[in-house]
Fold this sequence. Notes:
The chain is α+β, with helices and mostly antiparallel strands. The chain has helices spanning 2-8, 20-23, 213-219, 223-233, 254-272, 297-305; strands at 43-48, 57-62, 67-68, 77-79, 84-91, 99-101, 110-112, 114-115, 118-119, 124-125, 134-137, 155-156, 162-165, 176-189, 192-201, 244-245, 252-253, 322-323. 17% of the residues lie in helices and 24% in strands.
Amino acid sequence: MRALLQLLRTSGIRRAGAPAVAAARLPLGASAGPGPRRAMALYRTEERGQPHSPDYRLFFKNVAGHYISPFHDIPLKADSQENLFNMIVEVPRWTNAKMEIATEEPLNPIKQDVKNGKLRYVANIFPHKGYIWNYGALPQTWEDPHRKDESTDCCGDNDPIDVCEIGSKVLSRGEVVHVKILGILALIDQGETDWKLIAINMNDPEASKFHDIDDVRKYKPGYLEATLNWFRFYKIPEGKPENQFAFNGEFKNKAFALEVIKSTHECWKSLLMKKCDGGPINCTNVQVCDSPFHCSQEEARSLVESVSFSLDKGSKEEDQVWHFLGK
């Protein structure tokens, strides 16, 4: 429990019930608590509703068994000295269901995106099967839709910043893993900046070889090119045009990526302190006590238990079809 209490301080905002002097002992992003190999022990998940159903939700709990928001209550940083970050896995590699943190719902569970009343799945575009990385997000980040990014000249997409984890293991939905940031790609989606971080699980057998974006080119040749093409073409089977990118599709390096993370973390803090307009974003949290959106553990449990699910048993996962895009 002591390790958990230390870890909660890394968000940079004092936890509920803690004296201000305790929070001041660790600077924002400082290393605290157990080493990165114990990340998974700190969080667990609880499924509610049927998979492949609009009612499916995956809620998060901390080690004490209390419901939390993965968006707001899991610290951004795992180890400031090594620049390790917590990544929330939304979509395991090779799967197709478009799962995402429900930013507009209390406690922000993971759910499957719905469009025009139908569950969303990404298409298989030859030679790929579903997502070609473990896909997820960094907690405590927010791409402000009202703030124009100086480097892309476009506003944010109103979500936590996305992560493409390139390690060798297929991770599980809801896992919280420590990742090393390697670089970043700037997708421009319908006029909005949609950053895509490139990272590797620090527990990957080859993680020690990866320090920056050039190492991806060296040790996983073709992966960055495949990543660029995946994001360029993945909406074409839906009848949409190719996606566009800032910097002519160039992957920026680790230093650039870390600055983007820093900026989106500052935007998140403004959001949680109600210093900017979050619109429909739900900021309910359990551990950021200075936030006007803070709620008690009992209130969080009531929020989860009040979620009603229909008796729909869900549907089968979408039939697998491959698309061949001719030139």
